[in-house]
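Example for reference:
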Amino acid sequence: MIIAAAAAWGVIGLFINALRAEGFTLTQIIASTALVTAAAMAVITAVTDKSNFRINPRDFWMFAGTGIASYTFESYSYYTAIGRIGLGPAAVLLYTSPFFIMLLSRIIWKEKLTARKLTAVPLAVAGCVCVSVAPAIAEGGIGALFSGGLDLAGIAIGLFSGFTFGLYTIFGKAALEKYSGITVTLWSFIFASAATVPAAVIRGGWPAPNFKRAALLISMALVSGAFAYGLYTLGLDGVSPTHASVLATIEPVVAAVCGILFNEEPLAAASIIGILLVVAAIAVMNTKPKEKPPSQAPEPTDAAAEKA
């Protein structure tokens, strides 16, 4: 489920490019995705099990965490980082999230730092780095990554996007201890809508509505919102947070493949290396540790035999 969710996130770039070409701002795209996702999850809840609408007001903090601290802050900080330091470096910093998740899981749930995790997380992050910087390297060499100078504020914002990206896993895992995956996804995006829609409405400047624009917005929200977050949340219920974060790093791989297939981006050596590293990380994470053979009962001693 998590890999399928990450793959759905991986195609988001295609939707964003199409929506930007139609005149939508990033604020409008973020708000529309949140609102349509909340509406879609509400319909699913009404059809399947209406009890999933109910939550305890004391647990609002969980959904404020997933919907506002994670989705809203991550979206704005990531796109701000792209504007300051470029897409490749911003994507690299976004995918530092497995490190944050591993550390927070250790602090909150005392999750063990096993050899598998300490191997898979660096492999996954390294793979994301390679995939993310490959287009810039292909166009202008490795120096192109630093052509704009060192923007410390941009780097800090990028790291913040990685931290907030990881918060969905942390808050979502906590919410799943009390609620179903459908409930968690629904209320996450109700909170996200409450945070993002007013800002988009106040700023105004929406493109004139037509069928194409409506279809693009709804398709993006259903694929990269309701479908992706719904599957990720359901999948998160069965694995550790660190395991989930490693599986989700398939997203930039899918994004790179989409760029090659649909945007005619070159297939760089760095992309191939990155894809292989991410696949290796997922393979390591999914490898079950060897079980210790059952200990055999000791042979009876002469003294024990005499007592018998």
User: Anything to note?
Assistant: The chain has one domain: 2-287. The longest helix spans residues 60-85.
